[in-house]
Amino acid sequence: MSFATIAALLVALLVGAPVAAHLLRRRKAEEQPFPPAKLVPPTKPMARRRSMLEDRSLFAVRALSVLLLALLGATPFVRCARLGLARKDGASVALAIVIDDSLSMRAPLEGGAGAPGKRTKFERALASARELATGLRSGDAVAVVLGGAPARVALASTTNMAAVTGALDGIEPSDRATDLEGALSLARELLRSVPHTDRRVVLLSDLADGAPNALPLGGGSDTTLWAPLPELVASGSDCAVTRADLRAGKVRARIVCSPDARASGEGAAGVSASAGRAVELRAGGKVLASAPLGAAVRAEEVALDVPEGAPEELTVGLTPGDTILEDDEAPVVPAGGALPIAVVVDVASTHVATGGPPPIEQALAAMHLDAEVRPLPAVPDHADELAAFAGLIVDDVPGFTPEGRRSLAAWVERGGVLLLTFGPRAATAPLGAGFDPLMPGVVRWGPSPSPGADATSAVFFGPSAEGLGKLSPDGRASFDPAAATNADVLARWDDGAPLLLRRSLGRGAVFALSLPLTVDESDFVLRPAFLALLDRFVGTARARGGARQIDVGDAFTFDGFKDVAIERLPVRTGEARRPIPVVEQDGRRRAVAPLQGRYEVRLDGERAVRVATVPEREIDLRPRRVIDAARAEELGGVVPSIDASPYVALGLLGLVVLELFLRAVGQKREGSASTSA
């Protein structure tokens, strides 16, 4: 409330003026002489008569007028506003509303530190979506897409406004990472099927998708992008406990802090949110151990000693709180070791000019994916050897023997994840070697008619898909149509041929890349998409194998169990258990973790605890740019729907007229009384 508003409201104190005026306006009754009264001795009054208000109706009108005058002065521009769109010549419009339900949208709308009761950016985005839905007309079409990773369709295009309202009522905040590229791609796809000429994608997001330096959102599409709420744009900084592992009596907590958006220039060091903060080991609200954070932390591992006699359920938290409270605490998980990933590459053909291990081993080591890379000279032929690995990468595979294919297929069906990259050796497979049932059909190698991939088809790679346009391949592998049957085409070449396939096989999955991982054949390993592929591969291996710990947004898988139930355990006092739906997809039971924390799983009567952690890429509050046209005023904006000032002024005018009327009636009554006397 501003000083001018407070000063105007103080006018209401003048309501005492009519009270004083009416008390002072006491008429003395006209005295009539009564001669016998002189015979009675005068008596001193025992009580003093109180002053009484006269003309109470007139007093009430005057007091109410003073109060309305104060209200009019305090709220000259009181409005009820909503988000509305501007139509082209009044025609119907088709909207795809993208609502960002990621972790960063939990930040307070007004900035500053997060606190219970503060309005969040997610709440503002959801309210704006409801305002847009309220202003739609008959004939308009609406679709709703959620921008948390992975992007999901909450409602396909429909003209049923009741369905839109129901879909919006079912949306809740989550702790997911952000996938704006995928969400916009889904939104455009949903709008292609509608007959409307005016098609728009409405983006309600803080734009913090972890790629602040990527190309602006909204370019290269014929569908209009509208980002109407600049107040949602991410700002500030945040620190998070992404995971806490218990090993040998010590808790090792990984702390990740967002870089400062003001840091610019080569070698500029951002101001971290870690200054003045500490890491605490907690049990039931009691602090067992603590350690200070550095003054400028981007990512750091802090070790805390577990005291003797500590309970099993421990958490690691940050103090004091910051912009996002939900990522300041994480459960402690007994570590089972890093995820074992086997790599089979030809060291001679994958050498790099700077020396060192092959590019894939260097990339896995540099990305800190909590994966243990184990180079192998050849693919294991026996199931017991493969059972030691959660994932297997085979570069420029020359084919597998029948026994090797059976072992690999059985390993994949039990939850293993296999990445096969195909190069020149795929066309020179020895007699009897092949890829079926891992990859049905024949794989051929030849010149590539396309210089790169279609970025619009490579949503799987996220923002890194932009770099796939120019791969400069010397050749590429071609798959039989049977290989794409019942498979997901995650990326395509410019001519439509598959670049990357994913086939589900039992509990596991097989990825097939039509390029080898060598700089001599293409520039793929030099692109950010290569790192994105490894990140998705390791994440899939962790989830498909029934991992005890996954990132929020990934799914726990439950293959081979008949009775499955999962609940999220309370994190704070007063919270209740939250049941998580278990769905069956492609013959596999899975449950997506929308929030970080512990999950209790009941599998055929046996109980186990699994954990979902905050994705590190979400701890970056630097916003991504959007094209300038997405902020154009002709698309719409926040418009006033009610201006309260005219109504208050009209009421005040009515009270003035009523006062004049009451005064006239009162004067007439006084005149009549005088005449009768």
Automatic annotation (TrEMBL):
User: What parts of the sequence cross the membrane?
Assistant: 6-24, 58-78
Q: Which residues form the VWFA domain?
A: 96-206
Q: State the source organism's domain of life.
A: Bacteria
Q: Where is the Aerotolerance regulator N-terminal domain?
A: 1-76
Q: What keywords would UniProt list here?
A: Membrane, Transmembrane, Transmembrane helix
**What InterPro entries does its record include?**
Aerotolerance_reg_N (IPR024163), Class_I_gatase-like (IPR029062), Double_TM_dom (IPR011933), VWF_A (IPR002035), vWFA_dom_sf (IPR036465)
An example of a Pfam family matching this protein is: VWA_2
Would you tell me the protein name for this molecule?
VWA domain-containing protein
